[in-house]
Design goal:
This protein has two domains: 3-67 and 192-384, Rossmann fold (3-Layer(aba) Sandwich); 69-186, 3-Layer(aba) Sandwich (Rossmann fold). Helix content is 39%, strand content 14%. It has helices spanning 22-28, 42-48, 69-83, 94-99, 116-127, 142-149, 162-170, 190-212, 229-239, 259-266, 293-299, 308-320, 331-342, 347-351, 371-378; strands spanning 3-6, 38-40, 52-57, 108-112, 131-137, 154-158, 177-179, 220-224, 248-254, 302-306, 359-364. A seven-stranded mixed β-sheet has the order 1-10-9-8-11-3-2, sandwiched between helices. Strands 6-5-4-7 form a four-stranded parallel β-sheet. Helix 6 links the parallel strand 5 (131-137) and strand 6. The chain binds pyridoxal-5'-phosphate (PLP).
């Protein structure tokens, strides 16, 4: 059974401002860059009783099946700018940029991951002809390990949960081994901030896509929370100073990894003891990033914790609108379904201003990153009739 928490102390955070288009301009120059689809999920909108459900589909982002490479690539680029005296600009192609890095080699990029971020870092290393070493928690499914290894990375399985994997990766750093981690702790904040900035590309794209369709910005954004970097990017973009009108934001976590939920309720950061074993692998984090925490605390209206069954239901519903979404990818919708069911009197939706003319934005943050599981969950859904491949 899921749970719901209405955050009554939301305000626009003083440090939050809409990021510039630097990350977007950087990503546009990478190979395989394409604007990812913004899909009008008609059946879902009908089912949820709202005017529009837009789904930003990140199942193919820069050639990978999740949005995470947006952060990894931009943070690596900014780290290069900071740690070297090279004149990186101007460049138009990856070959030109790669050329400038010759004297840095051998260089290794290291990180911890529960799947997607690590693959993103490994792909960035491969793009620039660098090494990568990726730490994953015990219990990471083989398909995710294989996917990271397919990028040429060395994968190390840690005898512990995600937080332990982060510690192991952090211990590896030295002059020739750069940690590109998507969560921050005291003393390690700059790179995670660039990662958050890197995610803004998605929202600039949504902005342009809606403008081209002559449609208004969304009224409600539902975002899944792992360490909170993605949610921080949502808050900065949609509730930062300068964004108007400010939409409402719903944050979603797995029940057993609801560190944002528990932290906001407690009024201070709370860690959830591991191991976190939800199928929503990308959200199995027990501790929030310290740079994400204030933005989440001040910028997210409602927190929802969901169980795995809800994620499965959401995957099937998205499939009905033609969207292939993995367990973490569908978690946003899972949260909205949970909210609707819990909110029997409609009071939360009323506070969020949700009516039949509301436009909701969901971010399907990944495709079928665990294909076997996807097949098992969606392929056997009775509404789809037969098995899907
Ligand atoms: C597919 C997917 N969605 C959402 C998230 C959550 O992002 P964050 O950890 O920044 O909260 C992750 C994190 O790995 C992920 O892999």
């Amino acid at each position: 059974m899921g749970k719901l928490y209405h955050n009554k102390s939301v305000r626009i955070h003083g440090n939050a401002s809409i990021p510039g288009q630097g990350p977007l301009e950087f990503h546009r120059r990478l190979p395989d860059y394409n604007v990812t689809p913004l899909i009008f999920a008609r059946k879902l909108a009908q089912r949820l009783g709202v005017a529009r459900v837009w789904v930003k589909d990140e199942s193919n982002r820069l050639g990978l099946p999740a949005f995470k490479i947006l952060g990894a690539s931009y943070a690596f680029y900014r780290t290069l700018m900071e740690r070297t005296s090279f004149e990186l600009e101007p460049w138009d192609t990856i070959e030109q940029l790669r050329e400038k890095l010759t004297s840095l080699r051998p260089l290794t990029l290291v990180t911890a991951t529960d799947g997607n971020h690590g693959r993103g870092v490994a792909r960035v290393a491969r793009l620039f002809w660098l090494h990568s070493k990726i730490f994953v928690p015990r219990g990471t499914v083989q398909a995710r390990i294989n996917a990271i290894e397919s990028e040429g990375a060395e994968v190390i399985v840690v005898e512990g949960d995600y937080d332990e994997a982060v510690k192991a990766a952090a211990n590896e750093q030295d002059r020739n081994t750069w940690l590109i981690q998507d969560t921050a702790w005291p003393g390690y904040e700059t790179i995670p901030r660039w990662i958050v900035e890197g995610y803004s590309t998605m929202f600039w794209e949504v902005h342009e896509q809606l403008k081209a369709l002559k449609k208004p910005e969304p009224d409600v954004i539902v975002v899944q929370i792992g360490v909170g970097s993605l949610a921080a990017a949502v808050v900065q973009f949609y509730r930062g100073q300068g964004s108007s009108p400010a939409p409402r934001i719903v944050g979603v976590e797995p029940e057993r990894a609801a560190c944002a939920f528990e932290s906001v309720k407690a009024g201070h950061m709370v860690s959830i003891p591991g191991p976190q074993t939800s199928v929503m692998a990308g959200l199995n984090c027990g501790t929030l990033s310290i740079i994400a925490w204030p933005l989440i605390r001040d910028g997210i209206d409602v927190f929802v914790a969901v169980d795995d069954e809800r994620a499965f239901e959401a995957m099937r519903l998205l499939a009905e609108d033609g969207i292939i979404s993995g367990e973490s990818g569908a978690a946003g919708l899972a949260g909205y379904l949970e909210l609707s069911e819990h909110d029997t009197t409609g009071s939360i939706r009323e506070k969020l201003g949700i009516t039949e003319s509301t436009r909701i934005l969901l971010i399907s943050t990944e495709g079928a990153t665990d294909p076997e599981m996807y097949h098992r969950i969606v392929g056997t859904h009775p509404n789809l009739g037969s098995e899907r491949n």
